[in-house]
TrEMBL record:
InterPro entries (alphabetical): Trp/Indoleamine_2_3_dOase-like, Trp_2_3_dOase
Co-factor note (free text): Binds 1 heme group per subunit.
Natural source organism: Kribbella speibonae
Protein name per UniProt: Tryptophan 2,3-dioxygenase
Catalysed reaction equations from the record: L-tryptophan + O2 = N-formyl-L-kynurenine
Enzyme class: oxidoreductase
Positions with a binding annotation for heme: 231
Family of the protein in this entry: Belongs to the tryptophan 2,3-dioxygenase family.
Residues the record lists as binding substrate: 54-58, 120, 245
SUPFAM superfamilies attached to this UniProt entry: Indolic compounds 2,3-dioxygenase-like
Function, in words: Heme-dependent dioxygenase that catalyzes the oxidative cleavage of the L-tryptophan (L-Trp) pyrrole ring and converts L-tryptophan to N-formyl-L-kynurenine. Catalyzes the oxidative cleavage of the indole moiety.
Length: 273
């Protein structure tokens, strides 16, 4: 047996020894756990029991949003580079994350409205409306709306810059049109795009990769819509018809966002198949 501080043991007759690679990298230092686990600061005083859950859920959302932006950006770039398989592969990873994002609502719903009420009044005027990464995902996906940048209150210059850059850069839809264009389709008008989509849908054996890419975009759109629907029902359960801490009408405002679709032409196509 070896000696030292690492984990040592006899595995299958081989003397293994972990955690002593010069004493540099550890689990905690690699993952920056000291910093990460020090970021959950409650507003309530005395501490409301459920506020830790509320903060943790939101921080986990933002970590996944970061990953989703990483994958969507790379997927868009893969489309622009003609690497259709890679674009689809990355979109499929995003779908899996998006399913988890919707399921996470289950965890937050173990909090009752009464227990939320213990600290909700401390949150105003903060709200999910101010999530920059959430809006970046919308812009990158195809739903650019510059009015959100103006309506945001309290954004830092760095955050404003990130949103402005997302408004300028190509969306996933722009990249898909580029794929259609490079495959020989005219994409100059909405009518010609509709025509191209119908041709792709009508000859899947010939246009397999482009068809599957469109399906992956529709899936991303559907999963985003599912999150919005789940969020608004959770909101009704938590605060009924009360206005939001962000200053909106609350559930009414959120219901007005339910019809948002990133790729309306891909949905319209369904009516003509
Ligand atoms: C107790 C749970 C929650 C309640 C009661 C709630 C309530 C609300 C309300 C009322 C709004 C409208 C803006 C306003 O405040 O006036 C809103 C927006 C929003 N919330 Fe939540 N929320 C909850 C949890 C979450 C979670 C876990 C997330 C995940 C990040 C989230 C993300 C968002 C986003 C992104 C918006 C903006 C939506 C849009 O503009 O389309 N919310 N929420
Ligand atoms: N807008 C929510 C409060 C809320 O959920 C929230 C507050 C601060 C930071 C993020 C939040 N999450 C989503 O809106 C409310 O009106 O109760």
């Amino acid at each position: 047996m070896s000696t030292g501080d690492g984990v040592a043991g006899q595995w299958g007759g081989v003397d293994v020894h972990f955690g002593e690679e010069g004493g540099r990298l550890t689990y905690g230092s690699y993952l920056r756990l000291a910093e990460l686990l020090d970021q959950q600061r409650l507003e309530s005083d005395p501490p409301a029991h459920d506020e830790l859950l509320f903060i943790t859920i939101h921080q986990v959302y933002e970590l996944w949003f970061k990953q989703v932006l990483h994958e969507l950006t790379a997927s868009r770039d893969a489309m622009l580079a003609g690497e259709h398989w890679l674009a689809e592969h990355l979109l499929r990873r995003v779908h899996t994350i998006e399913r988890v994002l919707t399921q996470q609502v289950d965890i937050l719903e173990t909090m009752t409205p009464q227990d939320f009420g213990e600290f909700r009044h401390r949150l105003s005027p903060a709200s999910g409306f101010q999530s920059v990464q959430f809006r970046e995902i919308e812009f990158l996906s195809g739903a650019k709306d510059p009015s959100f940048v103006r309506r945001f209150r309290g954004l830092t210059e760095i955050e404003k810059d990130r949103l402005r850059r997302r408004l300028e850069e190509p969306t996933l839809w722009d990249a898909y049109l580029d794929v259609l264009g490079k495959s020989g389709f005219d994409t100059d008008s909405e009518d010609s795009i509709r025509d191209a989509l119908r041709k792709v849908a009508g000859d899947r054996s010939h246009y397999a990769a482009i068809w599957e890419l469109a399906e992956a975009l529709v899936q991303h759109d559907e999963l985003a819509a599912a999150w919005r629907a789940r969020h608004v029902v959770m909101v009704e359960r938590m605060i009924g018809t009360k206005p939001g801490t962000g200053g909106s009408s609350g559930a009414n405002y959120l219901r007005s966002r339910l019809d948002l679709r990133y790729y309306p032409l891909l949905w319209n196509l369904r009516s003509n198949l």
